[in-house]
């Protein structure tokens, strides 16, 4: 199968953009799906996070956009806010080859009115959660009658979360002659029914995740039930990952692990479902910025978390379901890099490891934790600090404005400035820990776009 993007019928400018983004070859799902999707076929694609699925629908919908027409032409439905934000960002990256494409996210946890204002100004692509999009339809602040591409992303999760009715109502307001692209990690009966109801002769494609299981080095260790916390420290001391997501099955575990590691001086944060959306966004951003080293989370809380360069995933406890395991460890070993997955289990949980091995068609062996004990570790601070600025997309702030404020008058070396994330109402910039104070002072005293904005360093 040809794997060069050049084999597709795409504008030269898009090919150059893909090259700039470092997308040299198509991933398996892209090679299978894009030729059909670009011809306008409906698609049912079985693909998980990490497969490159977002680019499949992003490239397809962008190829059909009329930038002169400010009606909403493409709609992407996602199960969560986090995924919506990520998808919108990926679409924006892939849209860079043509000027002035507007991508708007419509998700809960934010007031409706400013979203309605964004919509009034015109948006080509809408990305959001079914509940919030339905709210806008109810208030007549959204018109979907010009949608030519409809995407259902992580459709299985949306159904699990009870969005079926919302989805049906939304689709009923879109034109019947549209291209419908359905993405789902699993293919149970309710997904088949969804496809039957809303798609026309869909082409079915399936691909394994982008990074084969063998790019992830999986190692498992048996410990006594009462020794999980010291066993976790043993793993950290022996493997010395600079950063990791540590998964627990339940919230109590998250709290326990976070407290313990914090007391030992590790740079950690917990993520759990009860946190306010804004706090969760900030934890995600800080983790991506490498502003703390270890993220402790449950599966639900970590939903939508997508880190390009995560060296390690630790299963403090093995999940009951092998699919969840694969989803967890699939977050490392991305983009051709090697990933490390470390598992802790008790003797009584060996059957879980066996099931996980069966699901991957390999036998996963294990050692006792004492086999690697002995190493010591002095916890290190995270390399960066995240500064938060109370100005976002609504204030038309762009990453370049912030970089300019820091490196211009601020006199900070550009090399010390890392990722910059502009969200709707706030912007976040990663700076090296050694210059954090100076950078903060410069943001607090200087101006961005001619205005003063509040800035703080996130703890
Ligand atoms: P996704 O499965 O859509 O969440 O994508 C996983 C990651 O792979 C994202 O960080 C994408 O930016 C990246 N990606 C997608 N397609 C390619 C490609 N053809 N080459 C390299 N990276 C890619």
CATH architecture of the largest domain: 3-Layer(aba) Sandwich
CATH homologous superfamily assignment of the largest domain: P-loop containing nucleotide triphosphate hydrolases
Q: N-to-C terminal Cα separation, in Å?
A: 49 Å
Task: Name the beta content range.
Answer: 15-25%
CATH class of the largest domain: Alpha Beta
Which stretches of 5+ consecutive residues score pLDDT under 50? none
- Strand element count: 18
Quick one: biggest sheet?
A: 7 strands, parallel
Instruction: Output mean pLDDT.
Output: 91
- What is the total domain count? 3
Q: Which hetero ligands occur in this complex? A: adenosine monophosphate
What Rg is obtained from the alpha carbons, in whole angstroms? 23 Å
Proportion of residues in helical segments: 25-40%
Structural class of the helix and strand makeup? alpha/beta
| Overall outline | globular
Taking strands numbered 1, 2, ... along the chain, how are they ordered across the largest sheet?
3-4-2-5-6-1-7
CATH topology of the largest domain: Rossmann fold
Number of helices: 16
């Amino acid at each position: 199968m040809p794997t060069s993007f050049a084999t597709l019928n795409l504008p030269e400018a898009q090919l150059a953009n893909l090259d700039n983004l470092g997308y040299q070859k198509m991933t398996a799902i892209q090679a299978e799906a894009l030729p059909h999707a670009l011809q306008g076929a409906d698609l049912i694609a079985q693909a998980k996070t990490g497969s490159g699925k977002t680019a499949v629908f992003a490239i397809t919908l962008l190829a059909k956009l009329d930038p002169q027409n400010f009606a909403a032409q493409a709609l992407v439905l996602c199960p969560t806010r986090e995924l919506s934000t990520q998808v919108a960002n990926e679409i924006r990256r892939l849209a860079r080859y043509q000027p002035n494409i507007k991508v708007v996210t419509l998700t809960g946890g934010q007031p409706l009115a400013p979203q309605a204002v964004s919509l009034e100004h015109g948006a080509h692509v809408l990305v959001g959660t079914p509940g919030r999009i339905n709210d806008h339809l109810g208030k007549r602040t959204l018109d979907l009658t010009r949608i030519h591409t409809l995407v259902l992303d992580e459709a299985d999760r949306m159904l699990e979360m009870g969005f079926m009715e919302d989805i049906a109502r939304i689709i009923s307001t879109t034109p019947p002659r549209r291209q419908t692209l359905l993405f789902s990690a699993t293919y149970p009966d309710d997904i088949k029914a969804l496809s039957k109801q809303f798609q026309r002769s869909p082409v079915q494609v399936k691909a394994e995740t982008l990074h084969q299981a063998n790019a992830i080095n999986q190692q498992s260790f048996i410990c006594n039930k009462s020794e999980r916390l010291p066993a976790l420290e043993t793993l950290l001391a022996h493997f010395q990952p600079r950063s990791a997501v540590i998964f627990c099955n339940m919230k109590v575990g998250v709290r326990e692990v976070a407290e313990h590691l914090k007391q030992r001086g590790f740079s950690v944060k917990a993520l759990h479902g009860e946190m306010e959306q804004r706090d969760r966004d900030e934890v995600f951003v800080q983790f991506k910025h490498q502003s703390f080293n270890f993220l402790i989370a449950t599966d639900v809380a970590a939903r939508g978390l997508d880190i390009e360069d995560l060296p390690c995933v630790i299963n403090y406890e093995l999940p009951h379901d092998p699919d969840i395991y694969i989803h967890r460890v699939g977050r490392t070993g991305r983009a051709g890099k090697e990933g490390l997955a470390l598992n802790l289990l008790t003797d009584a949980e060996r059957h879980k490891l066996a099931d996980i091995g069966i699901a991957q068609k390999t036998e996963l062996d294990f050692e006792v934790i004492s086999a690697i004990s002995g190493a010591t570790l002095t916890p290190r601070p995270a390399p960066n600090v995240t500064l938060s600025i109370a100005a976002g997309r609504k204030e038309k702030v762009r990453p370049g404005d912030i970089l300019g404020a820091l490196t211009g008058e601020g006199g900070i070396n550009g090399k010390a400035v890392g990722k910059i994330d502009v969200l709707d109402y706030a912007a976040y910039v990663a700076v090296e820990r050694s210059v954090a104070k100076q950078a903060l002072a410069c943001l607090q005293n200087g101006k961005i776009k001619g205005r003063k904005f509040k800035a703080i360093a996130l703890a």
